[in-house]
Design a protein that fits this description.
This protein is α/β, with parallel strands linked by helices. Helices cover about 35% and strands about 15% of the residues. It contains 18 helices and 14 strands. The strands form four sheets. Strands 8-7-6-1-2-5-14 form a seven-stranded mixed beta sheet, with helices on both faces. Strands 9-10-11 form a three-stranded antiparallel beta sheet, with helices on one face.
Length: about 400
Amino acid sequence: MRPSLQGIKVLDMTQYLSGPTVTRLMAELGAEVIKIEQAPYGDPSRTMAIMREGRSGYFVQQNRGKRSVCLDFNHPEGRPVLDALIAQADVFVENYGPGVMERRGLDWASLGPKHPRLVMASISGFGKAPGVDPAYAKKTAFDLIAQSMSGFLHLTGPADGPPMPVGTSFADVSAGVHALAGIGIALFDRERTGKGQHIDISMVDALFHAHELAVQGPFLTGGRWSPTRSGEKSGLNAPMGVFRGPTGWITLHVMQGQWPGMCRAMGRPDLQKDERFKGLRERHKNRHELNAIVEDWMGTLPTDEAVLAALDAERVPCAPVFEPKNAVGHPYFESRRAVRVVPDPILGEIAIPGNPLRFSGQPEDLDLTAPLLGQHNAEVLAEIGYDAAAVAALVTAGVLRSGAA
């Protein structure tokens, strides 16, 4: 089967996580991705997090299937190389901080008129399109800043404690997936119009858009209701949240349609007729009492597995609180190829999350490897007309660099 993005050329000027998430998914879908890394050291994530033999697992996970060109694009001889690569690209992705691309004439206002078919995606904390509040257009942001500004921190944590971040870089990854969707739509539109366009992705927007009640609820109630932190158990419904099981933690999400099954699973059909718990409103009002009943029942069973089996038998939505490291070998994650053990020339085998997108008409897994720093300098430059002597001269001048990991 033919990969969906085969034949699409992507110029990747991204680093860390949000931008590499976009181009990682595109590479896994068959796109030709050229990763431009700023000389002399390249993507800072090459030296981040867990490393072995000078190789970062973080970098490998996000950059498999890309070709690396380590280029000093600030050098007078480096800029023509970058310009030539942009000219032959279908898609250009960047996630540099405020003002960086603008100062170099690499923003959409500069590139769009020169390359009318180019699709460009920019990811930033607060957005780069015209009209962004100037105070925020210039503001530096990382994942945690986006989580805070989007309201996620306000809603996460104990009811009587401080706001807490999500335990992973959710804003970066969410923005990357939103950018992928935008690029796909822009490429589809280009097929109809022949014109490219700019996709402006804000990490704050990508998270803020996920609020299902926190904006319209206060608006419709005139501010009389507003969501707050409720800790491990929901403040909106019951039983819903994280409960202590016999040996660990179990999550429940019981709505009105699942309440009869919950009562049967607990062996408490009498609770269906209990005035305290007959409807969503009543269960919310008496949620503390009901939550205690649920946890008391869980404690009567020997294991978490026994609790989950009883709930599953009645189709009650439930799950163990899962530790990600246990995904390798787990029947669900293996069956979905949601976790993959892939080869790397330096690390050997490494377990990574798989591609979450599933297509009926495309191969599931391509044979991809993360590049060494500048590994493809000569190969990529040859494709835009640089012979071996010209490449060697750029190496001598320090415009092109390479490395062992």
